[in-house]
Amino acid sequence: MILTQIILAYINLNILVGIGFISLVLYPKLAGLLKRSISARSLLKLHYTTLSILFVFLLLYPVIPVTKTFEPASRILMVRSMDAFTSEYFSPESESNIKFPVLLSKESDGQNNTVVLFAGFLFLLFIVGTINIFNDLRKLFIVQKGSYLIRKYGAVSIYANDIIKIPFSYWLPGKANVIIPTELLGNRADYKIIILHELQHHRNGDTKWLYLVRILKLICFLNPCIHLWCRLITEFQEFACDEVMVSQKGIRSQDYARCLFEAAKSSSNQRWVPVCATGLILIGQRKLLKKRIEKIFEKIPVQLKWPVNLFVLLLIIGQMTSVSIASKCVVQSGKITSAQASEMAERAMLNSKFPIVVNDLVLDELNAYLGTPEARTFISDSLKRMKYFKKDIEAKMVEYDVPIALLAIPVVESGYRNLSEATTKSKGAGLWMFIPSTARNFGLTVNKDVDERLDTDILTDAAMRYLLANKLQFDDWQLAVLAYNMGKSNLRKAIEKTGSRSVWDIIRAGHQNDKGYYAKFMAAVIIMKNLDFLIDKTNF
């Protein structure tokens, strides 16, 4: 289930990426329709803030509560075939007359394998992407080693390199560097513009934010929105720098545009473009270059104020919050936890004279009864059928002083179906599934013409006497139920071998007829008192 939750968190992150990208693409377009604009720096900050919020949602996703506001579209259950669910066991050597459906508690291997394979595929591609980034950082380190320091501007070091043709900036912990082509040193005007441009990238934090962008791109590599968004952010990094540069005194728009054009011509000889750096690395793209130059000279419309940007950001956060909460309910686990089982047991103990126990064996059977579509249908239908017999059976229980909790035995035995011997795989028949020899021992007629096991009143009376006889012999209702399945002689031998009268010690020592019988009985008792765990409880 942990892998399932990881995959759900991954899917949720990709949806949030789509929301963030689409919202930030539409926002300036809507502003344009209103003949308003947003500064490139404001939009860039909005992009960075949205990225931060994405990572916050990713980190907080495990602790987002599952709300019942949304009905889950699907539920992770322990799926298996109906044949496995209805497999029946009977030991002819036993004194018992028991036959019952065996409920398995293992999750589907196919389901687990699918989840593991998908997670493995994501992990493999993540490793490949990580290796590519580290390889790029290695190349960046080689370029820096082949460069020589020119000067420093505060915390930023300026290097010149004889090989590169495009200036760029990058950041490493403790290092903020700018690397420029050596040939640029001979052109004082362009040198000044390029240095100021690259320093602005560091001031904007572009070189640091770039790592967050790359990490997100690496995580969501299958999502086309993240690739488009990364490209958009890279472009806005340049637009924001351009915006600041042309607003400075001493730099004419014509000189700045010419510098961009000259850098674009030089970029045709640059083969390697560092993905962990920012700067004029996209200068060679003609459409982007044209757009940048046009923006430098265009008349800026009235810009929207910061409260509008804040409102848009709040809308994005609201959308992401709604999607994250809803995604937690898209797929839910149908598995009963230990805490839930204990809570159910506490309810079952109310007004019950029969000992209610929850342990690992009972928890497995609770999940077997409630953890698959077939089993939930079986237990639900069984309890619906029980209401037709409940009044008469309870009257017999009061008459023989049998605990009401033992109403759960026919759930395990027959699902409260009055089955004939011909329709079962064993010799048992009726609600209580007596075999012929046991039925005759308690005064019932069973032959080819008459089968009183199918008379629910007669069989219920015999079942009460059988259980009461077990109780009188073992002086314990729990052992009486176990003897109902194992047979009295087999139970006596088990007690002698184990030296214990504890039902659970006997079971764990391997002394039981039908595997998990008593745990199934206990699970059925608990479910009878917790009908809210069934899909449809309105008819009980």
Please describe the structure with a list of short key phrases separated by commas or semicolons.
Lysozyme; 540 residues; disordered C terminus; 59% helix; mainly alpha; single chain
Short recap of the structure:
This protein has 540 residues and is mostly helical.
Fold and architecture overview:
- The protein is mainly α and 540 residues long.
- The protein folds into two domains: 2-328, no CATH class; 336-533, Lysozyme.
- Helices cover 59% and strands 6% of the residues.
- It contains 20 helices and seven strands.
- The protein has a five-stranded mixed beta sheet, sandwiched between helices. The protein has a two-stranded parallel sheet with strand order 1-7.
- Strand 4 (168-172) and strand 5 (175-181) form a beta hairpin.
- Helix 8 (253-266) packs antiparallel against helix 9.
- The longest helix is centred in the N-terminal third of the chain and has 37 residues, at 109-145.
- The model is unreliable at 69-111 and 535-540 (pLDDT under 50).
